Amino acid sequence: MSSTLIEKIMARHSKKDRVKPGQIVDIRIDTRAARDFGGANVVKNLEDHGLEVADRERTFFTFDCNPGGSDQKYAANQHLCRQFARRKGIRVYDINQGIGTHLAIDAGMVSPGSTFVSTDSHANIMGAVGAFGQGLGDKDMAAVWAKGSVWFKVPPSIRITLEGKRPPEVTAKDMVLNLLAEFGSSTLLGYAVEFAGPAADQLSLDERITIASMGTEMGALTLLFEPGEKVLRELKGDDKKSIMADPDAHYERTITLNIEGFVPRVSLPGRPHDTLPVQQLEKTRIDSAFIGSCTNGRMEDLRAAAEILRNRKVAPWVVLKIVPATDRIWKQALDEGLIQAFKDAGALVANAGCAGCAAGQVGQNGPGEVTISAGNRNFAGKQGKGKVFLASPQTVTASAVAGYITTHKQIPEQAEEKPPEQKTRPETKTPVKSLRQKSPITARGDTWHIQQDDMDTDMIFHNRYLHITEMKEMGQYALDNLEGYEDFAEKAKPGEIIITGKNFGAGSSRQQAVDCFKALGISCILAESYGAIYERNAINAAFPLLVYQPEMLETIDYKSGDPVEVNFLTGEITNLRNDKKSHVRPFHEVQTEIYQRGGLLYTAE
Q1: Which residues on neighbouring strands pair with residue 150, listed in sequence order?
Q2: Is the pLDDT score of 10 beyond 70?
Q3: Distance between CA atoms of residues 213 and 223, nearest Å
Q4: Are 124 and 110 in contact (CB under 8 A)?
């Protein structure tokens, strides 16, 4: 029987000949890694539950969020992980190595058709080599370390065929920004997306990594490429056989896109999927620029930046920060003379790591600062207090030289001595309203209605608090980075229910974004859809998430905060003020089992 690429990978790693969308299966994990901020909580979960590591040869720590150990609490967590690793004989890719997902690819820990999990929401970057990667929360990861496998719901698949000749000025980053303009942040939510066609086949490994790394921002579970001979030659390791979907595999949708119409684009601050052609933002003044992250810290990215910078200088009022993805790439850039080109142009080059995206290294900006970044995320507060535009390394470099957003073909002969006037755009704010809820199989309480889509994990629980490992301390920071809800934790009462929009919990793999609501006693969340990792984290923490259809809102007056009762097993929801009834999607079997035993790591009595 025919299978898609994700179905083949999942079937090979389960005890089943074939799997189909919607089926929940236990998947064997080939390689599992915990980062420096998530690692401390993984250790805590293992030790609190008396669990041992199942396969130490396949288990790693990667310290990429704070490579300098420059924050005392990060340093403490890193030391805790090192001590645990020494006791258990586990390898640590320490602060001098770089981004864990890239290390896994470059060191041959991941091969086509394999499985990989990390406490990194961009672990789906492994789709670049035809492997299944996924970010997990710390409870999920502790279970994988102890058992070697974990449950997954087989996702439906979409196949996107890329045709046409790529315009010479369009980079891989521009391609994914064009895809974000086409699909937004939730059209592909929960899907495994396979790329095919001549334009996809011609992409290098570095280019595939760029595109695959932004699957998280597109809401997709994973973006997968079939590895051809060109990519296989770039991979290390012995197990480098290609894996392909069957020709007659079933896809929920098949889409053909001609990339000849793609143009260089820029994502607007706070919304990676809200993109415009560069021309529409030209002459927008910038204060700083950043090249790096798991999306654009590869050799091809650095070579492109160096080519633009040679015999040029960064504008006098601009700070250009460059962070290679791994130490191997850093050394290769040194050997090729790229580091010298960066320094001669006036750029700051830091040691390998995640940089500003993880708040632990260069790349952060201050209030009022305008940054153009080659990263993958620009959520409010993610890279500091200023505004962050996303673009390709070429556009970022050109803008750093010009002092304003532009393409490398439009760089002026000489930057002005003073920054140009800032072009301002009216800020669009999503209207926010309020409402409120608690219980075991039923939850009963008042409702909070937070009328917003794409609420990311930095809005829910900001990354400046990721050093916290005690759940009781997390509640006070819930939603304090969401405009209009900074005092949510002070006002929320145990038992209340949150009703929100689409793609709730987009972004990071942080477990704290779930546990902060548990700490406050919030009884459940109702949303139209959830970020894939967030949904897993909540289910595994026995925190009720349910999905509703828009019709449900017709039975609840969000202005008055109607009290409701939700039955998790039947999906029936009752407005306790007027007795109007509607339905939400009830718990599936695995969710019910985990919920009733109190969480993934607890043994059923």
Answers
A1: 27
A2: yes
A3: 8
A4: no
Q: What is the mean pLDDT of residues 362-373?
A: 87
Is the residue at 428 inside a domain? Answer: no
Nearest partner of 525 among 509, 553, 508, 504, judged by Cα: 504
DSSP class of residue 65? S
Determine the Cα–Cα distance for residues 119 and 117; give it in Å rounded to an integer. Answer: 7
pLDDT confidence bin for 385, thresholds 50/70/90: confident
Closest CA to 252 of 26, 20, 24, 12: 20
**Predicted pLDDT at 410:** 87
81: Cα separation from own chain's centroid: 23
- The answer to whether residues 293 and 251 belong to one domain is no
Name the E strands within 78-156: 91-93, 115-118, 132-135, 149-153
Q: Which residues face 32 on adjacent strands? A: 59, 117
Nearest in space to 314 (alpha carbons), one of 278, 283, 279, 287: 287
- Tell me which residue range forms the domain holding 571: 442-596
Query: What does the pLDDT average to over 443-471?
Result: 92
- Same domain? For 14 and 152 the reply is yes
* pLDDT on residue 422: 57
Neighbour count for residue 121 (Cβ, 10 Å): 25
| 545 in any annotated domain | yes
Pair of tokens at residue 253: 């949708």
E strand spans, 483-523: 497-500
Length of the chain: 605
Based on the domain organization, do 101 and 163 belong to the same domain?
yes
DSSP code of residue 348: E
Same domain, 325 and 375: yes
Where residue 361 falls among pLDDT bands split at 50, 70, 90? low
Q: State the chain's mean pLDDT as an integer.
A: 90
Whole-prediction pTM? 0.86
CATH number at residue 356: 3.30.499.10
**Is residue 506 situated within a structural domain?**
yes
Asked if 475 and 520 count as a contact pair (C-beta separation under 8 A), the reply is yes
Is residue 605 very low, low, confident or very high in pLDDT (cuts 50, 70, 90)?
low
The count of structural domains within the chain is 3
Express each pLDDT in 515-531 by its tens digit: 999 999 999 999 999 99
Residues 398 and 546 in one domain: no
Whether the predicted pLDDT of 206 surpasses 70: yes
| Location of structure tokens 């969020």 | 65
Domain match, 269 and 254 both: no
